[in-house]
Amino acid sequence: VTKGKKVKMEFKEVRGQKGIKTAKIDLNGTLIKVGVVSGLENAVKVIKGLNKEYKDYACIEVMACSGGCINGGGQPLSTNAKIRQARANGLYKIDNQKVIRLAHQNPIVKKIYKDYLTTTKIRHQICHTKYSPKKI
Description:
By secondary structure, the protein is α+β, with helices and mostly antiparallel strands. It contains four helices and three strands. α1 (about 40-50) links the parallel β2 and β3 (about 55-65).
């Protein structure tokens, strides 16, 4: 992507009820693979495949609940796929009607960066996570 060029991406390939969804995005000739997993049983499958079929993925979002947050702990659980899809469609509709849809365009986020997250060092200390092996 050219710096300063706005790109609108709708990852429709990774929407829906299927437990493992993938998409490929062409960014000026560079193919980026992404995935979305819902349900812990599917997360285990993807984790086992990280050195195989999923090794070239730039990012994989993992949601514990089957169907994602629309069937999560804060929602009435539903075994009916039509109900879950109606919930998802409602959320997509609400999202599409929002004036601000991206975090970097949010005036509150901009103010936080301007007033508090003023250096790369501070941003890394507050916004980045490091993982390391633990002995059990």
